[in-house]
Amino acid sequence: MRNNGLRSEFEHADEGPGLLLWQVTNRWQAAQRAALAPFELTHVQFVLLASLTYLAVAGDPVMQRDLAAQAATDPMMTSQVLRVLEQKGLVERRDHPSDRRAKSLVPTEAGAALANRAVVAVQACDREFFGPLGPRTGQFGVDLRRLRDRRL
Fold this sequence. Notes:
InterPro entries: HTH_MarR-typ, MarR/SlyA-like, WH-like_DNA-bd_sf, WH_DNA-bd_sf
Pfam families: MarR (PF01047)
Radius of gyration: 19 Å
Organism: Nocardia suismassiliense
Domain HTH marR-type: 1-152
Protein name: MarR family winged helix-turn-helix transcriptional regulator
């Protein structure tokens, strides 16, 4: 029987993919928070530190906008989180080699080491969380990328 209070196209509230995505995301974020707690990193701190560590390997200067694009984070929030990572001694701002007005970002030795320890815990958390999908996990990743890359 249809709920008469909410005029939804779904018979049951938990049939909507948006609500399901919200619920699953909240549970996944809670699992990630727990996995990252021993490293004293929030999830967004981890994402930015790991992304910077990944980008810095190429040897090209990493600008804040490059990091925000790689992590798909808001530039203002990225700046705020980078300040915290700098205060923790995990990230440094250095003079850009070819643009005197700009700064580039590099993980410190301690930052790169922490990112590499934490990524092990994050990936183990993901394996456990997404484990019920079994062999469909790869296709789930493909579907998520399709949604992420979609132009609205």
